[in-house]
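Handout, section 3.2

Students often ask what a structure token actually looks like in practice. Rather than define it abstractly, here is a full record for Serine/threonine protein kinase. The first block is the sequence as you would receive it.
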Amino acid sequence: MELPADHSNLLPPSRPMKFTHAPNDLVLDRYTIRRGIGVGGFGEVYFAVSQAGKEVALKRIQRNLEVELRGVSHCLNLKHQNLVSLHDVCRDSDDQAWVVMEYVAGPNLREVLDDAAKANQAEKRNRFRPSKRLPSGMFESQVRHWFAGVSAGVAHLHSAGLVHRDLKPGNLFDDDGIVKVGDYGLSKFISASHRSGHTESIGTFHYMAPEIGRGQYGREIDLYALGVILFEMLTGELPFDGETPQEIIVKHLTDSPDLSRVPEDYRNVISRCLQKDPKKRPRDVAEMLSLVSMDVQQTPVMAEVVRANSDDRPATDAANDLESNEQAPFAQAALGRQEGGTAMVLNSPDSEEPIARAVRNTFADASAWWRALETSPGIKLVLAISAVAILLVNTHWLLPVLSMVGFFYVPYYVLRHVVLQLSEPPSYSPSNDNRSNHSQQLTSAPATPPKRKPTMSKAQVRALLRGGLADRTRLSRAAEWSTSGMTSMIVAGVLLLLSSVIGMRSTPFTPLALAPYVWMALVIWLGAFGLLGIGKFWESTEGEGLVRRLVSASWGACLGLLAFALGHFLMVPMDEGLTRDIDATALPVSFYLETGVPKAAAMMAHFALLFGVLRMWKPVDPLRRVRLSLWAVTVAVVGEWVVHQIVPVPQPAGMLIAGGVIVMTQLSAPWVKSDAIATV
Ligand SMILES: Nc1ncnc2c1ncn2[C@@H]1O[C@H](COP(=O)(O)OP(=O)(O)OP(=O)(O)O)[C@@H](O)[C@H]1O
């Protein structure tokens, strides 16, 4: 069924808007549809009236998007003149979810911007240009009016512990001179795992802060979007534009905005809001406004902003509690994360652990309930103290129970990671199937997918991926290191088994005969584990670098010492292979015994030299060309043989260790498949 739509100019003429309901349809038993307004990413929006005649806007959420009502009451109870009121979220008899909200008759900022651009064009043609009109075609007073109103609405959301997440001109309305912010909270309540039919319009990406790609949804993302909107209102252009979402994303991550067309007074605020690092942006809306040469006390709206922020709660923290990490459309597009969460380019392996998720959701529910609790601060304090007292009184059984839970949970958690890492190798690479799904999601006409032309060079993609790697938290790096360490331990076990079975096939099985194999497996594992750890610091930048060689050499020296100590402990004969091709009498006495057995110094020098000569950051680099390069293994073995000519160590153990470390490191280190470039 097709209806005329109010905002038809927002869609290409070839795609008429389709609405499920026709005028006069009765929905939710009490609203009569008058007309369809528009179709957005989440569903259709209608203008409707209740039986008593109240005008409302109804948003019909797409059938395949599951609406999570947890915490929605927090949004429903927000009241502010600069926010479009949410009246209700309910289901009809077909279990279809609907959002009932205030109807705003006026235009949205997208339309205002488009009209202003048209007016500007017409004036240019007529060679008439009023002095106050900005390059965008808007008047400066108009820009300030919109910016003030939107800021006030956003400040109120932040003070209530909410982050909008989807600020863009299409979501900002002019209601008879009052600016209203709409669509807040919605993206949060639509479960990411059920958004398979949802296609992000390209417009959405223009306003997305770079950190959204990392699943960060602090209020700084709203300040970033406000900066983009202000830029657009002032210049009529977007600071970061491109033909595809990917191109826009890369610009958000790497480019600086061109502020030359922005009037002087607004450059500072825009440049601060568009900082890549959220910490460098204004702390809150009040600080942002203080950067604009506006008198913040002058208008009632401004006074409201100041008030809202002065009794501001720590919105970022609260919002982060509330915000789940579920939705990262930017991340999905930028880093290849797939619906259903099977493969992602820069995935934290613990992101979807079901028990942790359930606990987090419970805490989110509890904190949302606590915030929504309408009672005096005194009663809240009494409740909080009582809860703490109850916990303290029950520690005698709570602590043992929690310890037991931890006792079983931690090994399960670790095992799950290891299994996931092993069962879905490479953990960093999107599968082909997922990739095709993904391109469908990003394409508005899936029937005839347009030919993709390469919009990014390999260097740009690497920069994008490095950017993502650089911004990961220490905790996620540490978690990944430990997971890689576990994986390498398993690989070491397999190596030990294979090598000992092959090596001891004709000798009797004794602990002494097994010792050299155990020694080698341990040294290989230690070497790889150290390199994996150091690699976590290297992964965010490309490079050769003397520092890297020195760090590798230092780790090589440590490994030599460990190898020596372990050799002694396991009573491994350390002179084998030395006398065969090297004259023991010619060896320096400070490094070798008279029998040719290497001392600790020789082992340290050998591995330091080896690790300093080889480029040890290559096998740990997630962006290496192939996951397991046999060429790298060959180079390591030959390199070891060359080093052996200078500082000999037992052979063939030395060569096996060198090759083994490179194999194990490559197998255990995360890896981005090179053709992920096509996806990104
Ligand atoms: N409360 C409202 N009153 C009047 N018009 C509205 C209201 N809410 C949305 N609209 C209009 O309905 C149309 C569709 O809105 P919707 O929010 O679904 O889409 P969007 O904002 O373009 O995309 P998305 O939902 O993906 O962010 C837009 O033209 C919007 O201006």
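Discussion prompt for tutorial groups: The chain is about 50% helix and 5% strand. How would you have guessed this from the sequence alone?
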